[in-house]
Amino acid sequence: MTSGPTTATASPWFVRPPSPEATARLFCFPFSGSGASAFSAWPAALDDVEVCPVQFPGRENRLAHPHYGTYDNLAAGLTEALSPLLERPYAFFGHCAGALPAYETVLRLTALGLPAPECLFVSGQPAPHDASRDRMLTMTEDELRAEVEAFIRGRGIEPRPDMVELGLMVLLRDHAAAGAYRRQEPAPLPCPVVVLHWRDDPDVSLDDLQGWLAYADSVEFRVLDGGHHDFMDAPDELLKTLTRRW
Question: Are 98 and 71 in contact, with CB atoms under 8 Å apart?
Fold first, then answer.
């Protein structure tokens, strides 16, 4: 891998400016209802690969920014922010619904003639043409509120009402975008895809992920120990998987 000069300027899309010294970058896309803090337990670098959590508008430190509305809008805004950072090898990691805008961003980048990632890692998310099967898209607001409470408790925090309502607001807006997303047929990618399945995931089975086979010439499946949200704890098995191709 080679590195060249770059100017890393502050951007609201990244919680910290990407380092001009990095030899490679891993851009990380959070799941619906969450933000870049989903990766707060991850190290800032994995070997020589810089970890760059992406911050979507309408949450956390971008709560005052208008929500992106659609994955097309999200990919368009992110492509502009990414374009000066692609002069060295990079990859995308998207967990759950975060894998869908990651996929759409790769398509947009390559359509513009910009460098494609070395790899797209998708975690716990069926392929784009199967995305409408997500059980949470059919939930009522009360059911989603209960999901938010359960998630917060699962992270070892007693949920306050204001915390739950804020999380629910973000989740409802993200789910509106996820519910509006439709891709009837696969649009193949110019890069390999690595599909990550969590062995103890109660909602997404390994069979649910097979649709990704139509999205690239090289599609690899990896089964990791843990549940749906255990990626947040940066388990060693996951980190080794993310860096072994570089």
Answer: no
Q: Rounded CA gap, 95 and 26, in Å?
A: 13
Contact, 117 vs 84, CB < 8 A?
A: no
Rounded Cα distance between 17 and 194, Å, is 27
Instruction: Please enumerate in sequence order all residues whose Cβ is within 8 A of that of 15, keeping only pairs 6 or more positions apart, or say none.
Output: 36, 53, 55, 61
pLDDT (tens digit, 9 = 90+) per residue, 176-228?
A: 999 999 998 999 999 999 999 999 999 999 999 999 999 999 999 999 999 99
Residue ranges of E strands in the chain: 24-29, 45-46, 49-53, 90-95, 119-123, 193-198, 219-224
The residue among 142, 187, 194 whose CA lies nearest residue 168 is 142
What span, in angstroms and rounded, lies between the C-alpha atoms of 135 and 68? 22
Q: Residue 127 phi/psi, 5° resolution?
A: -60, 160
